[in-house]
From TrEMBL:
Pfam families: NIR_SIR (PF01077), NIR_SIR_ferr (PF03460). It catalyses: hydrogen sulfide + 6 oxidized [2Fe-2S]-[ferredoxin] + 3 H2O = sulfite + 6 reduced [2Fe-2S]-[ferredoxin] + 7 H(+). Belongs to the nitrite and sulfite reductase 4Fe-4S domain family. Gene3D superfamilies: 3.90.480.20, Sulfite Reductase Hemoprotein, domain 1 (3.30.413.10). Residues 98-159, 345-410 form the Nitrite/Sulfite reductase ferredoxin-like domain. Keywords: 4Fe-4S, Heme, Iron, Iron-sulfur, Metal-binding, Oxidoreductase, Thioether bond. Residues 12-42 have a biased composition (Basic and acidic residues). Residues 1-46 are annotated as: Disordered. One of its GO terms (molecular function) is 4 iron, 4 sulfur cluster binding. Its cofactor is [4Fe-4S] cluster; siroheme. This is assimilatory sulfite reductase (ferredoxin).
Length: 547
């Protein structure tokens, strides 16, 4: 596999006085109900019960431990029951908000969605999801209104087209982010497609990786624009060039957002394409074996990396998991802005790719079927989803780019969006998410429309990320303007939907988390004027080239 010298350092990991539930240190007894549930039955087994029992006998036949736990390994969550406003939600347990319908996530893992896949995704939406479909910022298509009785037919249709919902949620290898222009872009450093496919083959539906302490997010890009938000993934592979060995990947570990955000630590190594899957298995193995399982709030890789430090993490990876040393290399330069690939761009083969924007990721069944038809009509390669709730159509002939872009516009996807449409993301929010406190998708859509009127031209990119709760599914802390849903007081002292404001976050060069401005809370109603004021002040007082 490689000719690197075998590492011989002995790694000492003392058993802490108070156990964190780390398997490798002997803490095997489940220390919370999630761990108990996973021990009681491997969550991957729930697929058999969905096919054999629950889809035939209906919602009421579902074992609660499957419904609120193991279903996630099949990409299924109960969605929020209608009728609860944010105020009531605050006093209810998550279980009390269960609807009899499900949200379903389909993973795409950076793969190209050809005409057949796009039509399958659209037809499932039309037939079983009341037309709903959202592009998430993790390369998923997310449906709503799914009934358990429909799941076998949905899986048959999706799997027939080469798509899957397995481990799209749960304490598992969550959907992988891949560069939307892998193997396509003229300026890419290295095409990581084969590595991502191999990681997928080894990891998904594999019992060895189906019980992590919590979720495990992977990103891989060989594009210099770092187009997969690598700083905020549990493990990321980022293209780099060794002066003698050529193109390969650096490895970044322990990034993540939510209530305790961490930027990933950079190992500063060079690994060849063929060894990326081994290193993925090593990092995933460390998380499985040494990750903290006692408290769910500490059960992400970022806490282990923060406690160990990057040198110890690398040493354990080399000595215990890879059994060889990695080649050291300074981490690659970071781009000023991460690529979203919007617009029309020439490919390395002379054809073109077109990056297009729906509004806050919201598409629908008709749009996906129509996109599949366009891909077929023009003989294009297909589309990939981006880490920004957008998509990129690949392999368009030069002579067809204008016509294709016009046809995209006609189905609701624009390749020339305003700053606001291009750089605003919103999570699922109170419409369907049980953890949400406020509405997000529609609120963001209205905000975009208003800002397009008030600031039709903008010479500096400004990003806005709206989240419905303190979690950070739409990456609140790494936007110029991050809005975290919570209840706030209006001018009459009533509790109403609103947002805690965070300002000045970003990824890429100078990546940092936005600052929470304590006094800055805004009601949902007052949001348009609040953002307007921020933008006006920025435009009036900025230094040259200031973001
Ligand atoms: Fe739900 Fe909160 Fe995530 Fe939004 S950020 S999708 S409200 S959990």
């Amino acid at each position: 596999m490689n000719d690197q010298p075998t590492a011989t350092v002995k790694v000492e990991i003392p058993r802490p006085k108070r156990g964190e539930g780390q398997w490798e240190l002997g803490y095997r007894e489940p220390l919370n109900k999630n761990e108990q549930s996973k021990k009681d039955d491997n969550p991957l087994n729930v697929r058999g019960r969905i096919l054999g029992t629950y889809s035939k006998k209906g919602f009421d036949s579902i074992d609660p431990a499957d419904l609120r736990g193991r279903f996630r390994w099949m990409g299924l969550y109960t969605q929020r029951a209608p009728g609860f406003d944010g105020g009531k939600t605050a006093t209810l347990e998550e279980e009390e908000l269960d609807d009899r319908f499900f949200m379903m996530r389909v993973r795409t893992d950076g793969a190209i969605l050809d005409a057949e896949k796009l039509r399958a995704l659209g037809e499932v939406s039309q037939a079983y999801a009341r037309g709903t479909a959202d592009i998430t910022d993790r390369n998923n298509i997310q449906y709503h209104w799914i009934e358990v009785e429909s799941v076998p037919a949905i899986w048959e249709r999706l799997e027939g087209a080469g798509l899957s919902t397995i481990e799209a949620c749960g304490d598992s290898p969550r959907p992988f982010l891949g560069s939307p222009v892998a193997g396509i872009a003229k300026d890419e450093i290295i095409d990581g497609t084969s590595a991502l496919e191999e990681i997928k083959r080894r990891a998904i539906n594999n019992p060895d990786f189906s019980n992590f302490p919590r979720k495990f997010k992977t990103a891989l890009t060989g594009h210099p624009s770092h187009d997969v938000a690598p700083e905020v993934n549990d493990v990321a592979f980022v293209g780099t060039v060794h002066p003698e060995l050529g193109p390969g990947f650096d490895v970044w570990v322990g990034g993540g957002l939510s209530t305790n955000p961490h930027l990933a630590a950079k190992l500063g190594v060079w690994i060849p394409l063929a060894e990326v899957p081994d290193v993925w298995e090593g990092v995933a193995g460390i998380f499985r074996d040494y990750g903290y399982r006692r408290l769910r709030s500490r059960a992400r890789l970022k806490f282990l990396v923060a406690d160990w430090g990057v040198d110890k993490f690398r040493e354990v990876l080399e000595v215990k998991y890879l059994k060889r040393e990695l080649v050291s290399l300074a981490s690659p330069e970071v781009p000023e802005h991460q690529g979203d690939h919007i617009g029309v761009h020439e490919q390395k083969d002379g054809k073109f790719f077109i990056g297009a924007a729906p509004i806050v990721g919201r598409v629908n069944g008709d749009m996906l079927v129509a996109l599949g038809d366009l891909v077929a009509k023009y003989g294009a390669l297909g589309a990939r989803l981006t880490a920004y709730q957008k998509l990129v159509v690949l392999g368009v002939e030069a002579k067809d780019t204008d016509a294709f872009a016009a046809d995209l516009e006609a189905i609701g996807l624009t390749s020339a969006p305003s700053n606001w449409r291009r750089r605003t993301m919103a999570c699922t929010g109170i419409e369907y998410c049980k953890l949400a406190i406020v509405e997000t998708k529609q609120r963001a859509t209205d905000l975009i429309a208003e800002l397009e009127k008030r600031f039709p031209e903008l010479d500096t990119p400004i990003s806005i990320n709206l989240n419905g709760c303190p979690n950070a599914c739409a990456r609140t802390q790494v936007a110029d303007i991050g809005l975290k849903g919570q209840l706030v007081l209006d001018e009459d002292g009533n509790q109403v939907e609103g947002y805690q404001v965070h300002l000045g976050g970003g990824l890429g060069l100078g990546a940092n988390f936005s600052r929470k401005l304590r006094a800055h809370k805004v009601t949902s109603k007052g949001l348009d004027d609040y953002v307007t004021k921020i933008v006006e002040n920025f435009l009036a007082e900025r230094e040259p080239a200031e973001s």
